[in-house]
Amino acid sequence: MTITDIACRQAHRSDADHIALAHRDSIRAIGPTYYSPTVVDDWEEGLSGEVYLKAMESGEVFFIATGKVHGEALVLGFASDYRIEGSKHGTSVYVRGVAARRGIGSALFRLAEAHAVATGAACIEVEASLAGVEFYKANGFVETGRGETRLMSGRPIACAFMRKDLGVTTQSTGARPERQAGPES
């Protein structure tokens, strides 16, 4: 499938509904290879533009890729950066099924990573879906464990805990930040 006019930029509040559509498409297109239909349904539950508006209001920064598929302009995917605590940040990266394995997710992640570094992040941690493990490894993350996380529905989903150290130093001493233990499952 041909995708034309691909561009990446920071998302605006007006993009929230389109981000939700891209997120749901990603889950529906890629998720069934790794999860049962029930888990895919649970994963998609509650994803509306309001979710991303609230995240933006809480300080999460989103980057989107736009493009045309069969002449229709779409948000192809998104990545985000948010502070977990201190210099530890988190991210999410999702692309529509038609945009998968085309470098779009990696381009979006690089924008989110650059934002994290610019705002003082020393590392990025994710609770990666099983569908995202190889993507995150290809983008420099290491797996620190396996377990479950909770979806918006409150139901569990299997995940991999992953971390990427950003190689930045603390400003006060010039030393590398102390390593944190991986997330608890």
Task: Give a short synopsis of this structure.
The chain is an alpha+beta fold.
Question: Care to describe what's here?
Answer:
The chain is an alpha+beta fold and 185 residues long. It has a domain at 3-119: 3-Layer(aba) Sandwich (Aminopeptidase). The chain is built from five helices and seven strands. It has helices at 16-30, 37-44, 49-57, 104-118, 133-138, and strands at residues 3-10, 61-69, 72-85, 88-95, 123-129, 142-150, 156-165. It has a seven-stranded mixed β-sheet with strand order 1-2-3-4-5-7-6, with helices on both faces. Helix 1 (16-30) runs antiparallel to helix 2 (37-44) and helix 1 crosses helix 3 (49-57). The protein is globular and about 40 Å long.
